[in-house]
């Protein structure tokens, strides 16, 4: 498990201890649609046979970027990864669903939260929330310079 959110070692241990309890009877969110759904393949594994964290980070950035671009009505660029937590390993053959939502809109920036769920096993499918992340994007124009985001999302 890796934390990129300024957490102390004690916070890391506390978070780690609560992971298994959090996973009881979990299901996919029913109040929204995933931005991306995909299955990792054998070429995406690390030396331990789990899906490489960098591959997951890339998918999270894509899902967050799609969501930010829709809200900004145009091009966006990733400017920060504010938090990134790997809660469980992702395995070859898992069906990943990435859910993203804009949680803050500034003058030129948007903050997006992304949750990644893994569906594992057939016919007895188990669902795990495997990753959570918060990213900041900036809206940019054709000149790749920051541009204002319309405060009215309609």
Structure description:
The chain starts with 8 loop residues before the first helix and ends in a 15-residue tail after the last strand. The chain has three helices and five strands, in the order H-H-E-H-E-E-E-E. Helix content is 21%, strand content 33%. It has helices at residues 9-17, 19-22, 53-72; strands at residues 36-38, 76-86, 95-105, 109-120, 126-139. With 154 residues, the chain is an alpha+beta fold. A five-stranded antiparallel beta sheet has the order 1-3-4-5-2, covered by helices on one side. It has one domain (9-139): Roll (Thiol Ester Dehydrase, Chain A).
Query: How many helices in DSSP terms?
Result: 3
Strand order of the largest sheet: 1-3-4-5-2
* CATH architecture descriptor: Roll
CATH top level?
Answer: Alpha Beta
Summarize model confidence as the mean pLDDT: 88
Radius of gyration: 17 Å
Distance between the first and last residues' Cα: 39 Å
Overall SS class: alpha+beta
Shape: elongated
Helix content: 10-25%
Number of strands: 5
Main sheet makeup: 5 strands, antiparallel
Tell me the strand percentage band. 25-35%
Low-confidence stretches: 1-21
| CATH third-tier fold name | Thiol Ester Dehydrase, Chain A
Count of discrete structural domains:
1
Secondary-structure element string: HHEHEEEE
Fourth-level CATH superfamily: Hotdog Thioesterase
Architecture blueprint of SSEs:
Layout (H helix, E strand, L loop, with lengths): L8 H9 L1 H4 L13 E3 L14 H20 L3 E11 L8 E11 L3 E12 L5 E14 L15
List keywords for this structure.
154 residues, alpha+beta, Thiol Ester Dehydrase, Chain A, five-stranded antiparallel β-sheet, 3 helices, elongated
């Amino acid at each position: 498990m890796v934390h990129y959110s300024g957490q102390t070692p004690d916070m890391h241990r506390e978070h780690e201890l609560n992971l298994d309890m959090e996973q009881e009877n979990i299901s996919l969110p029913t109040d929204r649609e995933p931005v991306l759904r995909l299955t990792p393949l054998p070429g995406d594994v690390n030396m331990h046979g789990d899906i490489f964290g960098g591959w997951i980070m890339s998918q999270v950035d894509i899902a967050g970027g799609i969501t930010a671009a829709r809200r900004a009505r145009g091009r966006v660029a990733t400017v920060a990864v504010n938090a990134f937590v790997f809660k469980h390993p992702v395995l070859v053959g898992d069906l990943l669903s990435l859910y993203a939502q804009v949680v803050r809109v500034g003058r030129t920036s948007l903050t997006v939260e992304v949750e990644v769920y893994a569906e594992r096993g057939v016919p007895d499918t188990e669902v795990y929330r495997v990753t959570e992340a918060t990213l900041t994007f900036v809206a940019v124009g054709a000149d790749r310079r920051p541009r204002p985001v319309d405060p009215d999302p309609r």
